[in-house]
Amino acid sequence: MAQPLYAAHVADDPEADARVALTALRRVAAAWRLTGDEAAGLAGVSTRTWARMKTPGWAGRLGQDQMLRASGLVGLYKALHLYFSDELADAWPKRPNAGRMFGGHAPVARMLAGGLPAILATRGYVDALRGGA
Known about the structure:
Blueprint: H1 5-12, H2 14-31, H3 36-43, H4 47-53, H5 64-83, H6 86-91, H7 107-131
């Protein structure tokens, strides 16, 4: 019986997948001008672990939660750049937002407080803006 394509891909090389996800997370953190604590919180790791993850040659693995966080954050980054100018797209996550789901707080603060569900909800919020919902 043939294995599904997705299952075959996931089993390919989790370390390579982690390196790609980590590279993307680093780029998002730099673009959004996140502090080490903010980047670590969004990635779902401690500040010390985030610092180690940024060193060249880090060979660790990311768990499913961290991979989902990376996917959500990269998707949010892309959606923001499709919807706004580059400058505004990179500033948006740290600007106070009067939208109902943010209550005057910056989206980064909401995502830090709410973890993965808040990351995915924020991505959905921006996707809805793009789609006109």
